[in-house]
Amino acid sequence: PIVLAQKTFTHQDNLKYPFEERGLQFGDGIYEVIRIYDGSYYLLKEHVDRLFRSADAVKINLAATKEEITDLLLQLLEKNKMTGDGKVYLQVSRGSAPRDHVFPQGIPANMYAYAQDLPRNLENLQKGVSVITQPDVRWENCYIKSLNLLPNVLAKQEAKEHGCYEAILHRDDLVTECSSSNIYMVKDGDIYTHPATNRILHGCVRMRVEQFANDLSISFNENGFKQEDLFTADEVFLSSSTSEVMPVTMIDNKQVQDGTPGPITRKLQAAYENDAN
Ligand code: PDD
């Protein structure tokens, strides 16, 4: 496999970082996960835009334009002869320097990206998934796609240990998002989700879900909803670049209605398929 390292390409075995690397030592960096269908990026512009928003928010100098990064990401697919479904992971840390909380001066950010095959999760997309609920113990800047993922990792692991696919997070009573996806419920034909504030990651797929809802004349309500609402919802689904539009059919061991994906979720899944192909 060929990886992007800074602004050049190399075999992944040549990618070596010193142990004093700020991504490793402080989680001092940002990342993106971008979906690939049939060898082409889906929502590439949205991901590159968000990368720049994250970089600005944490004062990392990317030392590249959006056009340059877009071009490098396109070359990455070509060099790996990607033709099927996959994903690209792109990470930028503040750089390598002797460990000090204060930003080092005059060193470049460390950027790398790699592409991997990732088949669509067709069985889960068809049947839906089970999830648990967990308190959202993260910081106040969840709109930044930061490398600091320990609370997300712990929540997802808790889900796994309960035989579940994801953890729905709630801050006090209000449902925010999941450990690595956005969350929605449907009640009386309307979609409800947390507003795109600093408390959630503004998902690229979430932006498309809003557009699909508008196209389908389904109301997309961003006033949020409560944890207890999950248990009386008509439908629940989550979204992300890797999960797409994923039906949630069981929450904390309780079925969502009859435990099968609902009609609005199905319409949004169809809109997604249409958009991504
Ligand atoms: N996760 N919320 C969180 C906390 C996320 O980590 C993600 C993405 C999303 C959905 O964002 P998008 O629609 O842009 O993929 C929401 C990626 C896939 C990951 O960390 O692997």
Overall description:
The strands form 2 sheets. Strands 7, 8, 9, 10, 11, 12, 13, 14 and 15 form a 9-stranded mixed beta sheet that branches. Strands 2-1-6-5-3-4 form a 6-stranded antiparallel beta sheet. With about 280 residues, the chain is an alpha+beta fold. It is built from 7 helices and 15 strands. The protein folds into 2 domains: about 1-115, Aminotransferase class 4, branched-chain amino acid transferase, N-terminal domain (D-amino Acid Aminotransferase, Chain A, domain 1, 2-Layer Sandwich); about 120-275, D-amino Acid Aminotransferase, subunit A, domain 2 (D-amino Acid Aminotransferase, Chain A, domain 2, Alpha-Beta Barrel). The chain has helices spanning about 20-25, 45-60, 65-80, 120-125, 150-160, 205-215, 265-275, and strands at about 1-5, 10, 30-35, 40, 85-95, 110-115, 130-135, 165-170, 175-180, 180-185, 190-195, 220, 235-240, 245-250, 255. Bound molecules: N-(5'-phosphopyridoxyl)-D-alanine (PDD). The site of N-(5'-phosphopyridoxyl)-D-alanine has 15 residues, from helix 6 and strand 13.
Outline of the structure:
This protein has 277 residues and is of the alpha+beta class. Helix content is 28%, strand content 30%. It folds into 2 domains: 2-117, Aminotransferase class 4, branched-chain amino acid transferase, N-terminal domain (D-amino Acid Aminotransferase, Chain A, domain 1, 2-Layer Sandwich); 122-276, D-amino Acid Aminotransferase, Chain A, domain 2.
The distinct bound ligands, ions and cofactors come out as: N-(5'-phosphopyridoxyl)-D-alanine
* Low-confidence spans: none
Give the C-alpha Rg. Answer: 19 Å
- The sequence of SSEs as H and E is EEHEEHHEEHEHEEEEHEEEEH
CATH architecture descriptor text of the largest domain? Alpha-Beta Barrel
The first-to-last residue Cα distance is: 26 Å
Domain module count? 2
Q: What is the average of the pLDDT values?
A: 98
Percent of residues in helical segments? 25-40%
Q: Based on Cα principal axes, name the global outline.
A: globular
Question: Strand pairing plus helix content: what structural class?
Answer: alpha+beta
Largest sheet: 9 strands, mixed
Q: How many individual helices? A: 7
Please provide the count of β strands.
Answer: 15
At the fold tier of CATH, the topology name of the largest domain is D-amino Acid Aminotransferase, Chain A, domain 2
State the CATH class of the largest domain.
Alpha Beta
Please name the fourth-level CATH homologous superfamily of the largest domain. Answer: D-amino Acid Aminotransferase, subunit A, domain 2
What fraction strand? Answer: 25-35%
Catalytic activity: D-alanine + 2-oxoglutarate = D-glutamate + pyruvate
Protein name: D-alanine aminotransferase
GO biological process, one term: D-amino acid metabolic process
EC number: 2.6.1.21
